[in-house]
Design brief:
Two copies of one chain form a homodimer. With 251 residues, chain A is α+β, with helices and mostly antiparallel strands. The first copy, chain A, has two domains: 64 residues, Orthogonal Bundle (Arc Repressor Mutant, subunit A), CATH 1.10.10.10; 142 residues, Chorismate lyase-like (Chorismate lyase, 3-Layer(aba) Sandwich), CATH 3.40.1410.10. In chain A, 25% of the residues lie in helices and 32% in strands. In chain A, the strands form two sheets. Chain A has a six-stranded antiparallel β-sheet. A two-stranded antiparallel ribbon of chain A has the order 1-2. Chain A binds a DNA duplex (30 and 30 nucleotides) through helix 3.
DNA sequence: GTTGTCAAGTGGTATAGTCCACCTATCCGC
DNA sequence: GCGGATAGGTGGACTATACCACTTGACAAC
């Protein structure tokens, strides 16, 4: 399998990023009206559909919302306590906390069957296993275990993952852009070893998030299990599409 | 504000629903290739972009995935333990459990400021408050508190909500189609009154999900707080778009 | 057999239009 | 002043067309 390096960035993505930056810089505030599709198209000398795609991207990311007949507007900023889908470092910094990590495990393994199925690996394909304790202002707040197909990120096992963002590394070194995520979350009491890790009491509520992360074309990239102290975090679930009710319910 | 009743259903939504049904019926299995955009366009006598939108809808709903150069495929079915975004009844039935509800509160209230802001209500706009205990096979498993703007659903306070699905009622009686959701989830120990409700021990882990639900054009429809027994549920978070890393992290 | 090339089919991006439903502000008539 | 029509702007839903990037399989060359 070849590594893909997308040097080509679609126009609509560039436009979306431009607007994102204007929002991040404070030039555009929540509630402000964004340029209309037609204005945007003319300003960038592109077709209206392309401008529309740019705005659509912002809507999917939760940074904007549309109102028919009125326009497209900057969305309220979300207090992303823990999104689980963004990088831990990013999450912490956005709250003014100083993030750090302690690498507990970083090695190449032969994953077992269940894991291979999830990551769509062949019988003898190796994987990289990374476990990190996450700290905010030097207090342990989360434990994260990540498994990735080795063929997607050869050499990852030799990186210093205490200071780097995994997502940034995937993007910059391996050209892998994560686009989709899917999680399951459960609440349960802390087991003894978990309690020890968090300097915490046994039985206190923990939040356990299991996440699969995919590329744009839905290739599995990452299987992650994160454990958070229940008393320190709220898990923020970003904007989601609601599926229509099934036919069964129409009666 | 007028109630809007969309009798018009876009072509691409109809096409997406058609395919959804073929998946639900078992005619199409996970991994099967869906008709290509061009085939679909020709078969329904629409432009390729319209066919593309239909497939896009399925992708957003998590029912399909695309692979560039190969095609669009039926996604693996998800074990939706608790999605929080689908109706409780639907969730339970899909696991072979018999759902039921006990209405604990159903009344028109004057919401306080914080709630008014979330639901974009004026100072004197009333709201409907619905609290239900949810049971699976007659065992209490979740507690759900929902607030909706009264003007969106006048008369809801007189409905029998013990047997009806709220989402189905909104759709069928009020013409409101929910399209987007946003949640926050936390884990915490059960308080005494919660423990009593669930026939449970104080301090045992609970999952508390706070959800806002919106229409397609992002009008707030529902503010909901759901409490689940941590030992009985996993909260399933459907497919989500991952925002690109912020510029700060590029360094 | 292995390797390389090529053509056909796929989704991804993009142009250039059209018509419609909806919202708002303005203006006109009362 | 009040209410209703209207015009202009917005996003939503299309059509028709084009080229590109990527995957696959068939086939030729070695």
């Amino acid at each position: 399998m070849m590594l893909k390096r997308h040097s080509f960035v679609p126009l609509y993505v560039q436009m979306a990023e431009g607007i994102s930056q204007r929002i991040a810089s404070g030039e555009l505030s929540p509630g402000d009206q964004l340029p209309s599709e037609r204005e945007l198209a003319e300003a960038h000398n592109v077709s209206r559909l392309t401008a529309r795609q740019a705005l659509e991207e912002l809507v999917l990311q939760g940074r904007a919302y549309r109102v028919r007949g009125r326009g497209t507007f900057v969305a309220e900023p979300k207090i992303r306590e823990v999104s689980g889908l963004r990088s831990f470092s990013d999450d912490m910094r956005s709250q003014g906390l100083v993030p750090s990590s302690r690498v507990l495990r970083l090695e190449v393994i032969q994953p077992e069957e269940a894991l291979r199925a999830r990551l769509k690996l062949g019988a003898h394909d190796p994987a990289v296993w990374l476990e990190r304790l996450r700290l905010a202002n030097n207090l342990p707040v989360a434990f994260e275990s990540v498994v990735l197909p080795h063929k997607l990120c050869p050499g990852l096992e030799n990186e210093d993952m205490a200071t780097q963002s995994l997502y940034a590394l995937l993007r910059d070194k391996y050209g892998i852009y994560l686009a989709w995520g899917e999680s399951e979350i459960e609440a349960r009491g802390a087991l003894p070893h978990e309690a020890a890790l968090f300097e915490f009491d046994v039985g206190q509520p923990l939040m356990v998030a299991t996440r699969m992360t995919f590329t744009e074309s839905f290739e599995p990239v990452e299987f992650a299990k994160s454990i958070y102290r229940g008393d320190r975090f709220t898990f923020y679930v970003g904007r989601q599409r609601i599926p229509p009710l099934t036919t069964d319910e129409r009666r």
